[in-house]
């Protein structure tokens, strides 16, 4: 396939869904999706995904200055890729050819000077600028829905900021550009013997700057749960200048500027670099799956493990519905995927103590997989098949959803965090509330499942998945309407039951109402005042996290 005309140097992305354009489901995966459809929507009409020729985008509203012509694109492909993220409603709107707010320009700057000049021009000419990393937002964080108060919009893609610039082997840290994709980070660190080891589900398509801007969660279940835990310092290009923090292991010198940059979601500036803490490649690993008669037993085991000081690298607890949906056990049960790793010492004692805790709570297990990367003889028997099956389903689910959307099936997730004392009330309330809402909204029974992605000594981060039948007649606008109603219910349940509106998916536009509910007016006013200092014209990602500045058209 020939890549459409573009200033992008990356492989062609699937503009309407998840993945690269040349990635497709295998025959077995197609059959798996069709089996799910046979159960949920046996008589549904499949809608074909869109092609680029289906779209007729409006001409850019703003004239391209000659000084920017070398790094600004107005091609249909680039504008489509940068119109939406990768959430369920983003994909459905692509199927519906509903591109209400395509960016007028897509910028691919190669230097900070070009970024600064673009921000200055945008500030002077009332043009909104949306920083863009890998485009994997699932909360409306990167779309050009900025209201009517701007002359135009620019999506600012950092793909040329893609290098590991410096590695400090003594302090075990590295200076990395904000547009570097996850695989490229690991590839460039490997010759130095290090890893960042931050693996979100979007790892292949997301960037360091995007992780920092959204406080992304990685694969570690404890200790290093967010990118926050790896950030040593940041460099932010703003309309008011460059704000760079001092590289330090820690500091008590007033409120942390890095903490302001983390989670700023492109509203304060463009993250061009960050120093991050590295790790040595793990040598010792141990993994096991533990089954429990019910989710409540597993919850108690995980609580005790989280408060034991063992700090597992993996501690994913799946409820009965999640186990059933992924065909992980023949009988109804909850399942704990438990793992430890270290580059310095064997982890056998930690695993043994964790299994003692799990057994005391009713957990059952068979084989523990111990791996020493220096012992070639152990590598062939290193995979926990149950854990591997679940992990593969987790990684491939966005690809399955690409096709499920066409059948009118709503497949989506949301996550939160809450203290242990309130978890049971939240879990029961969300399961019952979501199941009731799906039935009332769609007229069909849906599926709601839960798993823990991250754990803390004071509470878990539960991650809920839900499936519902949005439409069977090929009318995806009906499915989109149903999704909006279900999503509204999910947001209300999470916040009203005491959880955070998001643990690691960011606020964007989809979670802003919930964010406003869980934060004080005074704090948000303080954030707005900070934005006015860094971004006086209010051009940076208006509507994400913070309402757009009210201004008259020029």
What characteristics describe this protein?
554 residues; alpha+beta; Alpha-Beta Plaits; five-stranded antiparallel beta sheet; four-stranded mixed beta sheet
DSSP strand content: 15-25%
Looking at the structure, what is the overall shape? globular
Strand count, sense and barrel status of the largest sheet are:
5 strands, antiparallel
Alpha-carbon distance between the two ends? 43 Å
CATH A-level architecture of the domain at 164-280: 2-Layer Sandwich
Low-confidence stretches: 376-382
Order of strands across the biggest sheet? Answer: 5-6-10-8-9
Determine the CATH topology of the domain at 164-280: Uridine Diphospho-n-acetylenolpyruvylglucosamine Reductase, domain 3
Residues in helices, as a percent range: 25-40%
How many E-type strands? 18
Mean pLDDT reading: 94
Structural class: alpha+beta
Q: Radius of gyration in whole Å, from Cα?
A: 23 Å
The CATH first-level class of the domain at 164-280 comes to Alpha Beta
Task: Give the number of helices.
Answer: 15
Task: Please explain how this structure is put together.
By secondary structure, this protein is of the alpha+beta class. Among the domains are: 164-280, Uridine Diphospho-n-acetylenolpyruvylglucosamine Reductase, domain 3 (2-Layer Sandwich), CATH 3.30.465.10; 284-372, 2-Layer Sandwich (Alpha-Beta Plaits). Helix content is 32%, strand content 19%. The protein has 15 helices and 18 strands. It has helices at 27-40, 76-81, 88-95, 112-125, 182-189, 208-214, 257-261, 295-306, 320-325, 348-360, 385-404, 420-442, 476-496, 512-518, 521-534, and strands spanning 72-73, 105-107, 127-132, 152-157, 164-168, 173-177, 194-195, 231-238, 241-244, 270-277, 279-280, 284-292, 314-318, 334-342, 369-372, 409-415, 447-456, 459-469. The strands form five sheets. The chain has a five-stranded antiparallel beta sheet. A four-stranded mixed beta sheet has the order 1-2-4-3, with helices on one face. Strands 13-14-12-15 form a four-stranded antiparallel beta sheet. Helix 3 packs antiparallel against helix 13 (476-496), helix 8 (295-306) crosses helix 10 and helix 13 (476-496) packs parallel to helix 14 (512-518). 48% of the residues are buried. Mean pLDDT is 94; it is low at 376-382.
